[in-house]
C-alpha cells in the first residue's frame, strides 16, 4: 500500500477539525483530518481530494473508497443535510471512478451561510489513524482547490 496525497476540495482557509461546530467531526469520531473554511462565494465546485470510487453520495457530502479498507469523506458545510439537496448540484453517480481534482459537487457557500449554517468543509480519513496523516498546510493558511492538503501514509 502506498501513501495517498489528499487535495483540498475547495478554496478557502485551513482549520483544525477541533474548530468544526459539530462534535462528531471536532472529536474525530469518524476519523482524523482537517477542515477548509470556504471562500464566501455564490458558486463553488467541490473537487475529489484523491482518486477513488464514489461510495456514499449525498448533495452535501461524499465518500471515496480508495481500496484496502481506506476511505475519505468530504462533508460540505455542517447540518446541510437539512437543506435536502437544495442549492447543491451533484455531478457524479455512486460507483463512479473519479480522479483527484474531478468536480463532484457544486454549491453556494453564501446561500448556506444565509440559511444560518456553518460552511466549513471537513476532509476526513474515515476510521484512520491520526499518526498516519501529515498536514501539508498550516492552520489559518489559504489553500486553493486541488492543492495538496494532507499526506496519508499506510498504517503499520
TrEMBL record:
The keyword Hydrolase does not apply. Residues 22-127 form the PTS EIIA type-1 domain. It is found in: Cytoplasm. Signal peptide: none annotated. Keywords: Kinase, Phosphotransferase system, Sugar transport, Transferase, Transport. Pfam families: PTS_EIIA_1 (PF00358). One of its GO terms (cellular component) is cytoplasm. GO terms for molecular function: kinase activity. This is PTS glucose transporter subunit IIA.
